[in-house]
UniProtKB/TrEMBL annotation:
<comment type="similarity">
    <text>Belongs to the TRAFAC class TrmE-Era-EngA-EngB-Septin-like GTPase superfamily. Era GTPase family.</text>
</comment>
<dbReference type="InterPro" id="IPR005225">
    <property type="entry name" value="Small_GTP-bd"/>
</dbReference>
<dbReference type="InterPro" id="IPR005662">
    <property type="entry name" value="GTPase_Era-like"/>
</dbReference>
<feature type="binding site">
    <location>
        <begin position="60"/>
        <end position="64"/>
    </location>
    <ligand>
        <name>GTP</name>
    </ligand>
</feature>
<dbReference type="GO" id="GO:0005886">
    <property type="term" value="C:plasma membrane"/>
</dbReference>
<feature type="region of interest" description="G3">
    <location>
        <begin position="60"/>
        <end position="63"/>
    </location>
</feature>
<feature type="binding site">
    <location>
        <begin position="13"/>
        <end position="20"/>
    </location>
    <ligand>
        <name>GTP</name>
    </ligand>
</feature>
<dbReference type="InterPro" id="IPR027417">
    <property type="entry name" value="P-loop_NTPase"/>
</dbReference>
<comment type="function">
    <text>An essential GTPase that binds both GDP and GTP, with rapid nucleotide exchange. Plays a role in 16S rRNA processing and 30S ribosomal subunit biogenesis and possibly also in cell cycle regulation and energy metabolism.</text>
</comment>
<keyword id="KW-0694">RNA-binding</keyword>
<dbReference type="GO" id="GO:0070181">
    <property type="term" value="F:small ribosomal subunit rRNA binding"/>
</dbReference>
<feature type="region of interest" description="G4">
    <location>
        <begin position="124"/>
        <end position="127"/>
    </location>
</feature>
<dbReference type="GO" id="GO:0003924">
    <property type="term" value="F:GTPase activity"/>
</dbReference>
<feature type="region of interest" description="G5">
    <location>
        <begin position="153"/>
        <end position="155"/>
    </location>
</feature>
<dbReference type="Pfam" id="PF01926">
    <property type="entry name" value="MMR_HSR1"/>
</dbReference>
<dbReference type="InterPro" id="IPR006073">
    <property type="entry name" value="GTP-bd"/>
</dbReference>
<feature type="region of interest" description="G1">
    <location>
        <begin position="13"/>
        <end position="20"/>
    </location>
</feature>
């Protein structure tokens, strides 16, 4: 019998570096929400890729930045927590932005958090720059940290992702598999469903509103005909946001519901009936229960 390999790979980087896109590319199924807006990933999301004899469990983490609010602090704590528990850490930076101050700050903190864990540098979004810039960038970043390897990829287009997988498969320890072979994510279905709806809302709303809302799956009912009825609540932090989320004549929430239902049904491979309700809950950003629902630790947000 050949020896199997399995382990956790943490994806860290600034907001918008492409961590969720890479996780989805590696796993081949959409498990993490991706938008062009920063701070889309709130909790730690795991996606599982099978590659030869290896099972690689990717841990997507919230983007790391200088946190100011409780939710931000909880997210950054979760990100470093993900890195501390991993067998391999991948630091993502964006090819076209180069070595930003934010990336430098993360590399500084890596020294504290990584311990003996190998760290690879992943230069993402190479489809956005000319090839000759990449070598110089790679040298520049490698001068300030001892990366075990460097990869140049496009998470979106898949360039370089196979090489990265190859390397990771050899790098994770010899171990029995950690999850059943056909599992792609370890988030409970009700949380995935809430994330899908939150993604659709984020895509349709502006700026502060997505940050100040959260989605919870309140009820999940299996029907005899094989379909599922899913009831979700969208909590908004301000009375004024409710009308915006609903849209004129309920148009926005209807479009969100339709898009979320279609994606959830595709993910589950069976029909879904999705019911959304919007509620104002001015203090949800200060309620421990809301953080637990997102997979975050409320206390991590203590100043
Ligand atoms: N051109 C290009 N765009 C990419 C690539 N990878 C990701 N993106 C885009 O970059 C944006 C951010 O991607 P995400 O995967 O959400 O980034 P993230 O690091 O998970 O972001 P947070 O959740 O905010 O921490 C999205 O609009 C992606 O489509 C890439 O290889 N090339």
């Amino acid at each position: 019998m050949t020896q199997t390999h399995a382990g956790f790979v943490a994806l860290i980087g600034e907001p918008n570096a492409g961590k969720s896109t890479l996780l989805n590319q590696m796993v081949g199924a959409k498990v993490s929400i991706v938008t062009h807006k920063v701070q889309t990933t709130r909790a730690r999301i795991r996606g599982i890729a099978m590659y030869g004899d290896a099972q690689i469990v990717f841990v997507d983490t919230p983007g790391i930045f200088r946190p100011r609010r409780r939710l931000d602090r909880s997210m950054v704590k979760a990100a470093w927590g993900g890195a501390a528990d991993a067998d391999v850490i991948l630091l993502l930076i964006e090819a076209h932005r180069g070595l930003t101050d934010g990336a430098k700050a993360i590399i500084e903190q890596l020294r504290e958090h990584s311990g003996k864990t190998p760290v690879a540098l992943v230069i993402n979004k190479i489809d956005r720059v000319k090839a000759d810039r990449l070598l110089a960038l790679s040298q520049q970043v490698n001068e300030i940290y001892e990366f075990k390897a460097t990869f140049m990829i496009s998470a979106e287009k898949g360039y370089g992702c196979e090489d990265l997988l190859d390397w990771l498969a050899a790098e994770v320890p010899e171990s029995p598999w950690l999850y059943p072979e056909d599992q792609v994510a370890d988030l409970p279905m009700r949380m995935i469903a809430a994330e899908i709806t939150r993604e659709k809302l984020t895509l349709r709303l502006h700026e502060e509103i997505p940050y100040q809302l959260t989605v919870e799956t309140e009820k999940w009912e299996e029907k005899k005909d094989g379909s599922a009825r899913v009831d979700q609540i969208v909590y908004v932090a301000r009375p004024g946001h409710k009308g915006i989320v609903l849209g004129k004549g309920g148009e926005t929430i209807k479009a969100v519901g339709q898009a979320a239902r279609a994606e959830l049904a595709e993910f589950m491979g069976r029909p879904v009936h999705l019911f959304l309700q919007v509620k104002v809950r001015e203090n949800w950003l200060d309620e421990a229960e809301r953080y637990n629902e997102m997979g975050l630790d409320f206390k991590d947000g203590d100043a």
